[in-house]
From TrEMBL:
It holds the Pfam family Pyr_redox_2. This is Apoptosis-inducing factor B. One of its GO terms (cellular component) is cytoplasm. Residues 6-288 form the FAD/NAD(P)-binding domain. GO terms for molecular function: electron-transferring-flavoprotein dehydrogenase activity; flavin adenine dinucleotide binding. Residues 363-377 have a biased composition (Polar residues). It comes from Hypsizygus marmoreus. InterPro entries: FAD/NAD-bd_sf, FAD/NAD-binding_dom. Residues 361-384 are annotated as: Disordered.
Length: 502
């Protein structure tokens, strides 16, 4: 008989996988963990931008989950399930299929605790699924008629998708990249260095790149862009999105699509990549209880314990803002809570310092970033101790990663990782407290983000970073951005590149 004492972890990327590992290491033996994701493998978002441009490494982006729980023996009760989550409530969820072979005879799964780590949807140039957070198709922008393959969560499909995207870029005589966040910077420099005769234009609505970081980052990136002869940078002009959506669109005598900025500048390109925003995957929470999700930025309201909370009425804006931009962030080993268990020394800590993830900017009305507040580069002030169980109607639901409004934490894998540690340890604490274990009267752990850190690829072999207030350049960066360094986080040690075909 399968135990009904269940913790579900929704999403098996950086935060979800880390939460599942800590739970598996400490949960009582009669409990089960269900790790649920719509993908067969964990998609390594760090390297997807590079591998969608550069051929030959695409198989390295999809990491198997056969050893994700990091246990010495195959877990008896814990399971990693590939399925869509179609509905969610405080004590149960519905899957797209049943798993009778795993003791789940119906599509309904009851649970005691949930860790919601569904992250966010990447913008269209990197959205393999081709859908938004609600599952609605995202229309592809002008692409000379080439259609990308259908992706339904399998590694073989993901490889085919990346290969098709590579051909799309290769066959496009010119490219316009819209959005000067780190994703846009990486796309522009990667395309220009992989295809050195292809004209590439980078359009950004602000006069400064990456405004949440030191001005030296902007200066260094601009210098790198200026050193690439086939890149043209346009700052301080916002794309008029209506010119992209016009049907039929305006073209020139060469058949290039012509779009315009708000100021009226016309730009011609064969391929347009809109790198202007990601959307938190919080629709399931909003459907369960609209007061848990801020309609302005679509982020879930959480307590410092990472438990799902309810927004005070005065904190809910009346107008909706667009999603946040994405880009590239590196691991920063600063947090208000240093890991307290041996498992916290996972390979992830070093791996994310070497490869790329998501940018740290807040959004404006075109999704390209806003000016920073005056204290963006300072450690947040300590907060008063709160008793979370008295402040939320959902003490058994935790939200981590890009879906959470986590006290100014930037949307990045390293933040999801540390939030997962807080959430997992708090779940274990609550389980033991409910079972009457002595000495567990102390409050739950609280999360506080560390200083922002970022690493931006500047084309093949080069990158720039800011960490702990220091700016530096890296050369001789491997073409695959050290993809193998992240696999040990999922329990797989890579000694030969051929192992990454699994």
């Amino acid at each position: 008989m399968i135990s009904t004492k269940t913790v579900v972890v929704l999403g098996s990327a950086y935060g979800g996988a880390r939460a599942a590992q800590l739970l598996a290491a400490g949960i009582p033996k009669e409990w089960r963990i269900l790790l649920i994701d719509r993908n067969s493998h964990t998609n390594n978002a760090y390297i997807l931008p590079r591998l969608s441009v550069l051929p030959g490494h695409e198989h390295k982006a999809f990491i198997p989950n056969t050893k994700v729980f990091m246990t010495d023996q195959p877990p008896e009760l814990h399971r990693r399930l590939q399925a869509h989550i179609t509905s969610f409530s405080q004590k149960s969820l519905t899957l797209s299929q049943a798993f009778p072979e795993h003791g789940l005879p119906t599509q309904t799964v009851d649970f005691d605790f949930a860790i919601y780590a569904l992250g966010s949807q990447l913008p269209a140039p990197l959205n393999l699924w081709g859908t938004d957070a609600s599952g609605n198709p995202i229309p592809r922008k002008p692409s000379k008629g080439r259609q990308l393959p259908i992706y339904r969560g399998l590694k073989t499909e993901g490889i085919a998708w990346l290969q098709a995207h590579q051909k799309l870029i290769e066959e496009s005589p010119s490219v316009l990249v819209v959005g000067g966040g780190a994703l846009g910077i990486q796309f522009a420099t990667d395309i220009a260095t992989v295809h050195p005769t292809k004209p590439v234009t980078l359009l950004h609505s602000r006069d400064r790149l990456l405004p949440r970081f030191d001005e030296g980052m902007h200066v260094g990136i601009i210098q790198a862009l200026e050193s690439i002869s086939n890149v043209d940078v346009i700052l301080g002009e916002r794309l008029d999105l209506s010119s992209v959506d016009e049907k039929p669109g305006k073209t020139n005598e060469r058949g290039q699509r012509i779009v315009r900025t708000v100021k009226g500048r016309e730009i011609a390109a064969d391929l347009i990549l809109l790198c202007t925003g990601q959307s938190p995957n919080t629709e399931l929470l909003r459907e369960m209880d609209p007061s848990t999700v801020n309609p302005g930025d679509r982020l879930a309201h959480v307590l410092r314990t990472m438990q799902l909370g309810v927004l005070p009425p005065q904190d809910i804006p009346t107008t909706e803002k667009p999603s946040r931009p994405v880009g590239v962030v590196v691991q920063e080993n600063q947090t208000a809570h240093e890991p307290v268990s041996p498992e916290s020394t996972s390979e992830l800590a070093s791996a994310v310092e070497k490869i790329a993830l998501a940018d740290a900017e807040a959004s404006n009305d075109n999704g390209e970033g806003t000016s920073p507040s005056s204290n963006d580069d300072t450690q947040p002030e300590e907060v008063a101790v709160e008793e979370p169980l008295a402040k939320t109607p959902y003490p058994n639901i935790f939200v981590i990663g890009d879906a959470a409004d986590a006290f100014g934490a930037i949307p990045a894998g390293h933040n999801a990782y540390y939030q997962a540690e807080i959430a997992a340890r708090n779940v274990l604490h609550l389980i033991k407290r409910a079972e009457g274990v002595e000495g567990l009267e102390e409050p739950l752990e609280r999360y506080q983000p560390g200083l922002p850190a970022i690493k931006v690829s500047l084309g093949l072999g080069k990158s720039i970073y800011q960490s702990r207030g220091q700016i530096g350049h890296v050369s001789n960066v491997p073409d695959d951005l050290q993809a193998a360094s992240l696999w040990p986080f999922f329990g797989i040690i890579i000694t030969n590149d051929d192992q990454m075909y699994e």
